[in-house]
UniProtKB/TrEMBL annotation:
Protein name from the UniProt record: Cell shape-determining protein MreC
Feature: compositional bias, Low complexity: 291-361
NCBIfam families, per database record: mreC (TIGR00219)
Family assignment from sequence similarity: Belongs to the MreC family.
Keywords attached to this entry: Cell shape, Membrane, Transmembrane, Transmembrane helix
Residue ranges of every copy of the Rod shape-determining protein MreC beta-barrel core domain listed in the record: 134-279
Gene3D superfamilies (alphabetical): Rod shape-determining protein MreC, domain 1, Rod shape-determining protein MreC, domain 2
Residue stretches in coiled coil: none
Organism classification: Bacteria, Pseudomonadati, Pseudomonadota, Gammaproteobacteria, Pseudomonadales
Amino acid sequence: MRLSAREERTIKPLFSKGPSLGVRLLVLGVLAIALMVVDSRLDLLKPVRSQLSLVLMESYWITDLPGRTWQAVASQFGSRTELIAENEKLKTEALLLQGRLQKLAALTEQNVRLRELLNSSALVNEKVEVAELIGMDPNPFTQRILINKGERDGVFLGQPVLDARGLMGQVVELMPYTARVLLLTDSTHSIPVQVNRNGLRAIASGTGNPERLELRHVADTADIKEGDLLVSSGLGQRFPAGYPVATVKEVIHDPGQPFAIVRAVPTAALNRSRYVLLVFSDARTPEQRAADAAQAEEAAARAQQGQAAQPTQPAPTNGSHPAPAKPAETAKPAEVAKPATTGRPAAHPAQPATAHPAARPSPTGERH
């Protein structure tokens, strides 16, 4: 089918070819260079550039709007997340600080108890060692505790144990590094005591209650009353004498009974003490301790006297050299021989006073 001339003229521009792409690029490049040269050398394009900058600024703001919106939303969510994390961190730190504060309060109380313990150890004459309570007997019918000192630390069976307030009990079982202590309030434990006010002797027995002791076989007419302090009497040679044991709380007199009912409260904090003292008693008798103390004082006095007896001898008045004097074994100044006072020196060194008597010089300087 053949097209008419009019149709051919209508269709022809659709398929007509213009300048090539390279030519267009070259023309645009030359135009851009020309504009740059003109803008750099002349001020003709300044108004045009200012107007274009306003238009381009609006386009920049519009094109940058999604990015800025995203950043704002991300910053809001990021700030909230950071605040939540920081809040959790502060809560954790506050909890830790509260725990440390509680620990500090416990350490303060522990320091006070240790100071009391050290002060109490200064009141006794025996050697003591601090131990820590690490366990308790779960049996409700026994009163026993476990301490962190054992046979390797020198602990022995029957060793007295006390705290800052008084006597607690004695060691009844030994392990290499731990030991079990039977408390005073155990129902199988008894201790000889005496009233500190008048020396009345009695036996304090445990009741199984950590807050109560009972005195057995106390005569109804005995001089004992509420508030009396009971101390260890030292009978039985298990507990040293003079340690506080309990305070009398109640005395009941029954006319029909020969013995009074006496109840006492232990002075030691049996159910609250954490640190205890192990007492290493001195095995010497009082006479031996007194004799040893007297010997020590005598030795110290001799040492001081020997230091005072060391000044040099005075030179003789006639210019002669004295014979060297030999001190006695007791190092007393009175026993040191004196040189001759005449112009002739002694022929032999002077002998100590403990030896045979030395001949006295005559007034003329000769010996008899």
